[in-house]
Amino acid sequence: MGNQELDLSTYQRASTRKEQILRLLWTIVWAVFARPIPRSLFNSWKLFLLRIFGAKVKNTSVVYSRAKIYQPWNLEMGEYACIASDVDCYNADKIIIGDHATVSQKASLYTASHDISTASHVWFSKPIVIEAKAWVAAESFVMAGVTIGEGAVVGARAAVFKDVEPWTVVGGNPAKFIKKREIIC
């Protein structure tokens, strides 16, 4: 293979001017009307703001004030789903968070990246699905196109680049299987 030329002169923007303006408006609205509110207080107000910008969130969903949501129109949250403080939800594509699923503090969900095998560094996006009862723990990273299976746990600071099987626990970078998850009643 050897050294190959990387030519970014042909790089094309992934978003339209309209999307950029809408994202700017959204960023201002969230910064002014939601971010100053402590943690999960006035949650129904924050859900209202998200819905105005196209999010599909249930009344029991919880979004903390310091969560960073790139494009709310690409967000779907089920019953009692939670996005905690400082979560970076870069949802250039759909992010779907199922019923009773949690994304903990400082986790990063990235639905877009660049194809490093192309000379023009082509931009791509793929959805992320976090199924019901799953938990993405603190400071984890989940990449575009990944599905976190029902009841699965992504351990703190794990980096997930492939689907996680239901009812399993994964951790590390890259995330690897640790054990089956069993709920003790």
From TrEMBL:
One of its GO terms (molecular function) is O-acyltransferase activity. Keywords: Membrane, Repeat, Transferase, Transmembrane, Transmembrane helix. It comes from the Bacteria. InterPro entries: Hexapep_transf_CS (IPR018357), Hexapeptide_acetyltransf (IPR051159), Trimer_LpxA-like_sf (IPR011004). The chain crosses the membrane at residues 21-38. GO terms for cellular component: cytosol. The keyword Transmembrane applies. The keyword Transmembrane applies. Gene3D superfamilies: Hexapeptide repeat proteins. Belongs to the transferase hexapeptide repeat family. This is Putative colanic acid biosynthesis acetyltransferase. The lineage of its organism: Bacteria, Pseudomonadati, Bacteroidota, Flavobacteriia, Flavobacteriales.
